[in-house]
Write a structure and sequence with these properties.
Endonuclease, Chain A, two-stranded parallel ribbon, about 45% helix
Length: about 500
């Protein structure tokens, strides 16, 4: 009877047996791959094994697309390119040597052990420099005009890097300015974009349109993505950076998109960005060139010696800045080490604003331990998130945070993509990293720490502004949840290891 049921749709017994055998072998090989590559991520491994066993064919496809992160393979290639750049850095001549000689006079030495000493040990290829000027920019409304102004003033080279570059009013305006500089003034322009993040513009041949027939305008995708290699979706280059003539840099969370400009969109994305001048620009430039060397296979010595990307550092302000690139093969989990340092070193306060808050258990436990030391911890998360499942996954953590006397705020209104942290009112973190597993472990991120000058005070004022438009989540609010909301939160929390 059972056999007749299975073969009632003209499927022969041999075909059915071969199909079942194929599915079983596929699941076995997938589980072996999971165990071989995720032994250091037990929660993620168990989740993926459960998915593969529960929905065999679909589970394998999902794992192929979302589960394989290529940390060990792609990371090794990036590591090789990065090491070649650092070797060239030690033996170089020309402009970069002049920069290195000059930057030593701006090298900051802490007067007493603190977070700088910890970062020296955790991130040995990074170092703080003094003499920097840094300005805080709110939204693309403020950032884009200043970026365009810097592009117009460029005389030698412009390097642009962004996770998202859109084929819209902002994207076309910036690329039009880049093209004009490269054609009329012979300025060499290099653009790095993420193939997935900028997929809409890529599919519309946006990048070919602007660089076609122009030797001074080069564009490269950091990690190419196609249907035949879906696992490449995981390691994304999430950095946002613009550098003009090695003198001025723009860095933060803002992508190249009209969605960030309040003058173009009624419901725009709120974000924060920075303009930076001084010795630290050279470290940001070096980070860009490491990425460029990896994707273009360019000779590191030529990049460092002959392209005039570096200038002799000048004293531009009072801020002390440390640039921190993070990602497999460069500085693995540097973002996590940076934020964990903030948690462990905070004595009085730790305020964080982030669009996505789905960190691992160790980070949450660190926050709770800091709160137990009477550290004033406040976390601002958008009430309206562009990824509903991340919103509910973050809310599943609220009870743990609130029970530990950590204050949680949801920013009302438009989606907030802002990301920053202030520690003890004395130093700050900004850049591209979110407080989530992807930024901590998978993405290529670019952050920086800053102390000195008036920037931390201005960022503190910005935090107060963010808090004014936010609603604090209390214990009583959590008790008012409907049963289905709690169910969705708990369900989404299961996927925290892979979000």
């Amino acid at each position: 009877m059972i056999i007749d049921f299975f073969f009632s749709n003209d499927m022969s017994s041999v075909t059915w047996i071969l199909f079942v055998a194929f599915v079983i072998l596929l699941d076995i090989f997938t589980i072996i791959h999971i165990l071989a590559n995720k032994y250091d991520e037990p929660a993620s491994a168990i989740l993926w094994i459960f998915i593969v066993l529960d929905v065999p064919i679909l589970g394998v496809l999902l794992y192929l697309i979302l589960g394989i992160n290529r940390i060990k393979t792609t990371g090794l290639k990036v590591d090789k390119a990065s090491n070649n750049m650092h070797k060239a850095k030690l033996g170089t001549e020309g402009a970069f040597l002049s920069y290195l000689s000059g930057v030593m006079s701006f090298n900051y030495k802490p007067s007493e052990p603190g977070y700088m000493t910890m970062l020296d040990k955790l991130l040995p290829r990074t170092f703080p420099t003094s003499g920097n000027s840094i300005s805080l920019l709110e939204d693309g409304t403020s950032a884009y005009p200043m970026m365009l102004q810097a592009i117009e003033k460029a005389e030698k080279n412009i390097n642009l890097q962004s996770f998202i570059i859109n084929d819209d009013e902002v994207g076309n305006k910036i690329f039009d300015a880049l093209q004009k500089k490269s054609k009329q003034d012979g300025v060499k322009v290099k653009v790095l974009f993420d193939r997935l993040g900028s997929s809409h513009a890529y599919s519309r041949h946006f990048f070919k349109k602007w660089s076609r027939g122009n030797k001074n305008f080069e564009l490269k995708a950091f990690s190419k993505f196609n249907l035949f290699a879906p696992y490449r979706i995981q390691l994304r280059n999430h950095r946002k950076l613009l550098i003009c003539d090695g003198r001025v840099a723009f860095i933060g969370g803002i992508n190249i998109s009209a969605e960030n400009d309040a003058t173009l969109k009624t419901k725009y994305i709120h974000d924060l960005h920075c303009k930076l001048e001084g010795p630290a620009v050279g470290e940001l430039q070096f980070s860009f060139l490491k990425d460029w060397s990896f994707v273009s296979k360019a000779d590191p010595e030529i990049l460092l010696e002959q392209e005039n990307y570096f200038v002799t550092p000048e004293h531009m302000g009072e801020s002390i800045i440390r640039a921190i690139p993070s990602g497999p093969g460069q500085a693995y989990e540097a973002s996590k080490k940076l934020f964990m340092s903030a948690v462990s070193m905070a004595k009085k306060s730790l305020w964080i604003i982030t669009p996505y808050f789905v960190p691992d258990k160790s980070f949450i436990e660190g926050l709770c331990m800091a709160a137990a030391r009477n550290v004033d911890i406040r976390i601002i998360i958008p009430q309206n998130n562009n990824h509903w499942y991340v919103r509910y996954a973050a809310r599943s953590i609220y009870n743990t945070l609130i029970y530990s006397n950590i204050r949680v705020f949801e920013k009302k209104g438009m989606f907030s993509h802002a990301k920053a942290a202030i520690i003890d009112g004395e130093w700050a973190i900004m850049g591209s990293s979110n407080c989530d597993m992807r930024s901590f472990r998978l993405n290529y991120e670019l952050d920086f720490t800053v102390e000195g000058g008036d920037f931390v005070y201005l960022l503190h004022q910005q935090f107060l502004k963010e808090l004014e438009s936010s609603q604090e989540i209390t214990y009583s609010d959590r008790m008012k949840r409907r049963w289905h909301e709690e169910l969705v939160e708990n369900f989404c929390s299961l996927f925290t290891p892979i979000l």
